[in-house]
Amino acid sequence: MGNLTKNTARESISRDALQFIQSEKGHYINGDWVHAGSRLDIIDPSTEELLGRLYEADQSIVDDAVSAARRAFDGDTTWRKIGPHERERLLHKLADAIEADSEVLSDLIAVELGLPKQAALHFEVAKTVQTFRYYAGFPTKIAGQTLDIGPEMGGGEFFSYTTHEPVGVVAAIIPWNAPLLVGAWKIAPALAAGCTVVVKPAEDVSLVLLRLAKLAEDVGIPKGVFNVVTGRGSITGQALLDSEGVDKFAFTGSTAIGKHIYRAAADRIVRISLELGGKNPAVVLEDADVSAIAPALCMAAFANSGQICVSGSKVIAHKAIAGKLATAMAEFCEKLKVGSPFSQETVIGPVCSKVQFDKVSSFITEGKQSGRVLSGGKIDYPKGYFIQPTIVCDLPADSRLLHEEIFGPVITIETWENEEDLLQTINSSKFGLCASLWGDNHGRLQRIAKRIRTGTVFINTPAFPPVSMPTGGFRESGVGRDLGAKGLEGFLEVKSVIARIN
Ligand code: TAP
Asked: Which of helix, strand or coil describes residue 205?
């Protein structure tokens, strides 16, 4: 165990995806491809080789993109005025185009992020199509209320109603870990609501959102409605925060940058949604079927090399079954193949970047020193940012592995005995993104779920947010909600109209 599957990246990537990478597309602004700004290298995390190059948008390029989005929102032929039926039609066309382009999109995700191609194809791209189709259904159903306010106005007749109007220009700042899907969580509801959008992908994984811009162009999304600017967060992202014409920041990323964006929003009272980090407990009750759930618990934390915000990487097992569970998980973990995202055998690809590799490696080194590694722990592959899936137990209570988001293929196992102490541990974490519960007594599982203070509780199923259910965090895990009808509300302003009619 520990050897890599064959690295077949360059041979397996489709010609269309390679051509797209080599075409060095530039920024997508007002329906044009803009080749401007300094250059950034794109590194393949499997080989550490140069894959291609990006352009970095500075303040003036970002301001151009925001102005284009502003004109497409405010002007005469605007996205808002185009009407809900046409917005629905175009969003469905875009969903169809994404589905038809699945192979290329998943190649781009696999080569740039390192997510195994099959997971990119059947999960990230498939879920993106679902997300666009889900929100394509909303434009014609956005509705207000009419209310009888005569009695409270001291008599007279009134016609009073609410309307829901798009917020305006949205700056969507996207992380690298699920670039297309998390992008879709913001872009699809924003466009459905009638907003226009400027997207900033993460510097490490930008290609797939540039490809989405090409698809938007192909299906006839009007100029300026959807724009993409690439570059580093400190340059291009910061320029978006400083740009005057933005009405909402829709952000997914780390809690540290989320706080920075919250402060920037406060200066001009820009609307905000923040989907931030997590440290998500996977709680196993004493009546759980340990051997049946061990694979699900592992994959809930190891999928996408653990680079998932809802990853259930903090397993807390009842003392009575903890030993048996740890053995079953370690056995499963040993079988997981690490290697090229383009090999059919690979379950665990590389982590996304050198920065991420160094960060996760430091957690593993610390885990080896202060705890007991039950499985995995290998980080010294000859090349590529590969990390063997790792399970660590017997860590001291104050270990940072137990409290900080690792965002790599590392599971920690702790034990519990007393339900009140367990709830105290979960609810006192600075994070509150999600929790999962595993057991057989449904009444008890529901009672525990009711007392857990996280944005989502998953019961007997690995954490993954379905498109029709709102997702987001309590405490430092965020503000606002993506997905579901709630995810659309975040892109709408409510207006009240009160008219005396006699
Ligand atoms: P961050 O480092 O916070 O980066 C997120 C985005 O912000 C990137 O596009 C980044 O650009 C940009 N950015 C960085 N500095 C900025 C600045 N000063 N101004 C404006 N934008 C700036 O997060 P990440 O490492 O990409 O993503 C991992 C984090 O995302 C984890 O904490 C994970 O939990 C969280 N996440 C949360 C969720 C939900 S639903 N809660 C979902 C997915 C991920 P560059 O990368 O180009 O620097």
From this structure: strand
Kindly give the residue spans of alpha helices, DSSP state H, lying in 148-237: 179-193, 207-219
Q: Which atom of ligand 1 is nearest to the CA of 260?
A: 18
Task: Give whole-number Cα distances, 164 to 183, 268, 393, in Å.
Answer: 23, 22, 51
Residue 1 confidence (pLDDT): 46
pLDDT of residue 97: 99
- Extract the runs of DSSP E, i.e. beta strands, from 14-168: 27-29, 32-34, 38-43, 50-56, 146-147, 158-166
Ligand 1 atom closest to Cα of residue 278: 34
The DSSP annotation for 224-249 comes to TTEEE--S-IIIIIHHHHH-TT--EE
**Using one digit for the tens of pLDDT, what is the confidence trace for 412-443?**
999 999 999 999 999 999 999 999 999 999 99
Amino acid at 355: V
Sketch the domain layout of the chain as residue ranges.
14-276+480-496, 281-466
Instruction: Return all residues near 83 (Cβ < 8 A) that are at least 6 apart.
Output: none
Q: Fold for domain 14-276+480-496?
A: Aldehyde Dehydrogenase; Chain A, domain 1 (3.40.605)
pTM reported for the whole predicted model:
0.97
Tokens coding 376: 């995995």
* pLDDT for 155: 84
The CATH superfamily of 281-466 is Aldehyde Dehydrogenase; Chain A, domain 2 (3.40.309.10)
Positions of the chain with pLDDT under 70: 1-3, 6-11, 76-77
417 CA → ligand 1 middle, Å = 36
